[in-house]
Structure formats: C-alpha cells, structure tokens
Amino acid sequence: MERLQFEYPAGEPTTQRVLVGVVGSGDLEVLIEPGEAGKTAIDVTTSVDGYGKVWDAQLSRVFRAEPRVAMRIRIHDFGATPGVVGMRLAEAFEQLDATSGGTGKEAS
C-alpha cells in the first residue's frame, strides 16, 4: 500500500460531500468533502506501489485544466486504470454539481 498526497489551487470551498465508486478488484472509491479555501488537497491510498508519477499526471490533467471549487478528496484505489480514475472523478464532479446546484468548477 502506498499513500500519495497532491495539492492544487482552487476557489471557494464546496459545501457538499460526495461518495462514488467502490473499492474492489480494479476499481476505486472517491470521497469529496469541503476543503480549505484556495486549495484542493488529494490523498490517494493505492494498492499499487510506485505509481506516483502516473497519479500526478492523471490528477494534474484534471485539476490544472481549469479552476475548481476547493475540496478535500480521498481516493482509495485497488489497481484502477487511469481511464477508471478519470471516469470516477467525472462521476464525482457530476454528483457534486447535482447536489450543490453549482459546479465542481469555479464560477467565472
């Protein structure tokens, strides 16, 4: 098991909590909670050691592309592929949008 931590700039915190996915063979769970204003903190617990650069590349594509609300994200991974990671994050942001009436992205 490896634990990785990442941080990205963000706007104001979300007020919602979201849980998507399951921890099981080849899948992962994403938990979003309100974060500290100005940053999104991500903790990844993964069963696959040595993939820090892969996680960094995947998360950087998502969080550096455009501003998002501030969140604390916990990801529990059981060997998911980058495609599944992207899908689960998109699912979490969609659910965040639906529950908050807002967006996982910062208002412009």
Automatic annotation (TrEMBL):
<keyword id="KW-0597">Phosphoprotein</keyword>
<protein>
    <recommendedName>
        <fullName>Malonate decarboxylase acyl carrier protein</fullName>
    </recommendedName>
</protein>
<keyword id="KW-0963">Cytoplasm</keyword>
<dbReference type="InterPro" id="IPR009662">
    <property type="entry name" value="Malonate_deCO2ase_dsu"/>
</dbReference>
<dbReference type="InterPro" id="IPR023439">
    <property type="entry name" value="Mal_deCO2ase/Cit_lyase_ACP"/>
</dbReference>
<dbReference type="Pfam" id="PF06857">
    <property type="entry name" value="ACP"/>
</dbReference>
